[in-house]
Amino acid sequence: MNTKNFEFLRDGLKYMGFGEKLNTDLETKIKEQPGEFQLALQGEFKRDGVTDKVDYKLDFKKSDQTDMYFFNRYQATLKGEDPSQDKSQTFYVTKNSGMTAKEAYNLLSGRSVNKDLTNKEGQPFNAWLQLDFKEKDKNDNFKVKQYHSGYGYDLEAVLNRYPIKELSSDDDRLKIIRSLEKGNVHQVTFLKEGKEDKMHIEANPQFKTLNLYDVKMQKVFQGIERKEVKEPEKGIEQEKSKDKKETKKQESDDESEVGQQKQRTRKRGARV
Predict the structure, then answer these.
(1) Cα 112 from Cα 210, distance rounded (Å)
(2) What is the pLDDT of residues 232-243, one digit of tens each?
(3) pTM metric for this prediction
(4) How far is CA 225 from the centre of its chain?
(5) Do 103 and 78 form a contact (C-beta atoms < 8 A)?
(6) Number of domains in the chain
(7) Is 46 within the bounds of a domain?
(8) How far apart are CA 188 and CA 168, in angstroms?
(9) Is 113 helix (H, G, I), strand (E, B) or coil?
(10) Domain range spanning residue 64?
(11) 81 and 15 in one domain?
């Protein structure tokens, strides 16, 4: 058995988020020396008291020239309440690099993931990725929507529009950004009218915003972004508005009194 090849693949599985459960089966298969083989694993992800399950099928193929094996791709299937609701997608791996197991789950759950990629010419670029569940390609994969940097989605700038308590800490800010880039739903604290509310957020690059959920993961209507006018200034504006209304009312009353006086003058003139 090629020990270095086994160690490289073993480390790759861990880096890609598949853990160490497949190490024994991987070593056994490499010793058997088949032309290609497949390993299976089920992942579990907890979400608001519910456990989502994802079946992974990992494909390995032996080199035509050497005894080395390569981890080329894997299929991830997010299990639904019944088989008709299952969603599957094949993800490709290059030198132990690609979409991680958790990122694949997030994509199949409808969320967006930010990745550094390489185009056909070998040039690196960054983009947000999201699966289009309405359309598939010739390989029966969901088409992937890409939102490049030129699209104009600035995650940090979007976060700053919301009254998120954790953003005051540079370390927490970075953790939130990294978590959202991986496609996670991240819990934060919203400061609203002097109160603290636990909220969940996820990136929405398509509409250049965030998706908001309450503590029970119920979607929240947008409209609680930071306000440009500060709270003390709001009070001043309200007082000004109140003064304006009272002034208008006084002017209206004065005009009414003047009108009544004119009418009385006309009546007296008519009687003379």
Answers:
(1) 11
(2) 444 444 444 544
(3) 0.80
(4) 17
(5) no
(6) 2
(7) yes
(8) 12
(9) strand
(10) 3-99
(11) yes
